Amino acid sequence: MKINKKKKNKVSIIVPSDKPLNQISRISYKHAIQQDYPNIELIIFLNGITKNEYKEVISYLDKNNIHNHEIINYYSRKRLSPGIARSKLINISKGDFIIFLDSDDIPNKQLISKKIKLAIQKNVDIICSSAYIFSNFEQYKNGFMKKRTYVVPLIILTLFLNSFVPLSVNLIPNSGTLIRKRKSNEYIFKNYPKNKHEDFIFYMNIIHHINSIALIEEPLISYYINRKTLTGNKIISKLWHAKAISNITNTSLLKSILLTIIGISLISPLIYLLEKIRILFKKNKKEISFILSRNN
């Protein structure tokens, strides 16, 4: 039986990519276009690669588009920052929800359908999920990945939202997180930040315009994290974080660096410890979903 897409909320998959086809990006692109949710537009901005590499990626997406999802693509030979690419893609997206994916993220093919189901049933604005992390293709291929969970970070976010705590450390995962568009947050989407660490700035802006956030504890996405890359470099990424804090709060870079140091030395280790304790004493081993309501 043919599904009426018009009756389903539309989801825009936002993909900024400077990756031609390789071991990881092939799986990433394939899993993105083969999401089993019926009403999807995949909007990809390929940049920093050759025209032939760009054509190969689009051909690969078309070939693997088994559900006939809409594909919208842009190309630039010049390499663009993820913020600039995401900003353009968001502004032309038509989805009721958006979801960010990078070309080295590997989403479960039910990532969107499972999150949309929870979002509609419970009227939730942001839905995160646990994830697997790998640093090379062999780890992913053989299933030797670390699990990353976000129960404690999201609880801390809701409890300390109006304090300095959420500024000092990233509490919301970017890739694979489903975000609802509303009239109340339309301005934030239209003015998506274009500077470094723009995802952190975006979430800190939008979190004050949502009523609830949910977490699906089942790992629905795998992240490739390599310390040799700029985003994987702890020193550089923390400097970006400090600059992002300065941007959000209009404070000096020195104060922002101090706040980042507090996040690195105190809050992040505390979150790690509390999450380990929670998992150790967790009685119900079944993967569950839960909702956290934000007090306005």
Features:
single chain; 296 residues; 10-stranded mixed sheet; 11 helices
Instruction: State Rg.
Output: 19 Å
Tell me the β content. 15-25%
Q: How many helices does DSSP assign?
A: 11
The span between the termini is 43 Å
Which structural class should the secondary elements be placed in? alpha/beta
| Sheet having the most strands | 10 strands, mixed
- Uncertain segments are none
Return the string of H and E elements: EHEHEHEEHEHEHHEHHEHHE
Overall outline = globular
Strand count: 10
DSSP helix fraction: 40-55%
pLDDT averaged residue by residue: 90
Short description:
By secondary structure, the protein is of the alpha/beta class. It is 42% helix and 21% strand. Helix 1 links the parallel strand 1 (11-17) and strand 2 (40-47).
Describe this structure in words.
This protein has 296 residues and is an alpha/beta fold. Helix content is 42%, strand content 21%. The protein has 11 helices and 10 strands. Strands 1, 2, 3, 4, 5, 6, 7, 8, 9 and 10 form a 10-stranded mixed beta sheet that branches. Strand 1, helix 1 and strand 2 form a beta-alpha-beta unit. Helix 9 runs parallel beside helix 10. The chain is globular, with a radius of gyration of 19 Å. It starts with 10 loop residues before the first strand and ends with a strand. The model has no long low-confidence stretch (mean pLDDT 90).
